[in-house]
Amino acid sequence: MNVVYLDNNATTRVAPEVFESMVPFFTDKYGNASSMHTFGGQVGKSIQEAREKVAALLGAQPEEIVFTSCGTESDSTAVMSALQSQPEKKHIVTTRVEHSALISLGQHLEHKGYEVTYLGVDSKGRLDLDELSEAMRKDTAIVSIMYANNETGTVFPIEKIAEMVKERGILFHTDAVQAVGKLPIDLSRAPVDFLALSGHKLHAPKGIGVLYVRKGTRFLPFLRGGHQERGRRAGTENAPYIVGLGTACELAMNHMAEENTRVPALRDKLEKGLLAAIPDAIVNGDQEHRLPNTSNIAFQSVEGEAILLLLDQYGICASSGSACTSGSLEPSHVLRAMGVPFTYAHGSIRFSLSRYTTEEEIDFVLDKMPPIIRRLREISPFRSVK
Ligand code: PLP
């Protein structure tokens, strides 16, 4: 059975070009980049080239790029650096719709005596910037707001937000894990202090990430040890993965214009087709400011998990907006923050496309999905609930 992979916000396929560029660093070029010999030095040179490619995609300087193990590490490092470098400040501002990389960190910090303000969103998942303005205080150490939401694809106005935060002299971090490689980003224009990205969301492998740290921003490392990454992240460099990420960033840059027309056209075909064929379905999130590859659709009176199981029988991979906690299916914290009605939130499915998605795959989903929803509605316990 062929796999129709529409779960690219969860993770992406490693691009063949990325894989190819990594192989020599497992076989021939296995030296330690920090060694004195030429053999290791060559690896260091390739790491530097990768750093330049990542920086180019972000409109950053190569020395502002710190390689990490994943997006979660980058997020934690940014927040912890801000707190430790300003020990007198005990307040953090973030949002209710962040990834668990920040929500869990925030909850942990609350237990440690910090105060965290979680900004709410409206029914389309948008922030109220006046609320952000009011939330910032003298003792705010950092504001951390995601660039784009992983579940709905809603994109926040990060340049404007960064300016507002910097006007108040506060550090600003953005979790751009879902945005990098999908949206043009120019950090030479946005006064962002920290930005997190993750390789496996843009066709590089799992286990490599980046923390961008603006030149001049006070920074304290999360991992201490060797002098790698100019003392900002200890641990022998993961050369194959760093090189792979460099290739992925170069590909993303070269493909961005084409992908930003082809991919949203396929996404819109899928979305319009499903809404036309299936009654009582709505799109979750801000359709005006949205990642080009993401569609989150709520089907009333059905369970998201049941839809996923039936899609799985055809090899179709997607995600639901629910999380199974202690036996009860809770709608996701993002959909709850948006106030999506219960009977819709439960039947929410996220489709996320990539450069490898084909029109045939979209047509296949358009063919399979309506009968699945019909079948589930016939047996749904919420059938009569409006
Ligand atoms: N932030 C966002 C918005 C994400 O979507 C994810 C992963 O899904 C992460 C952070 C965590 O990234 P990683 O899996 O590289 O730790």
UniProtKB/TrEMBL annotation:
GO terms for biological process: amino acid metabolic process. One of its GO terms (molecular function) is pyridoxal phosphate binding. This is Cysteine desulfurase. Residues 4-363 form the Aminotransferase class V domain. It is an enzyme of class 2 (transferase). Keywords: Iron, Iron-sulfur, Metal-binding, Pyridoxal phosphate, Transferase. Homodimer. Its cofactor is pyridoxal 5'-phosphate. PROSITE patterns: AA_TRANSFER_CLASS_5 (PS00595). It comes from the Bacteria. It catalyses: (sulfur carrier)-H + L-cysteine = (sulfur carrier)-SH + L-alanine. Belongs to the class-V pyridoxal-phosphate-dependent aminotransferase family. NifS/IscS subfamily. Pfam families: Aminotran_5. The gene is nifS. The keyword Iron applies. Its EC number is 2.8.1.7. Catalyzes the removal of elemental sulfur atoms from cysteine to produce alanine. Seems to participate in the biosynthesis of the nitrogenase metalloclusters by providing the inorganic sulfur required for the Fe-S core formation. Signal peptide: none annotated.
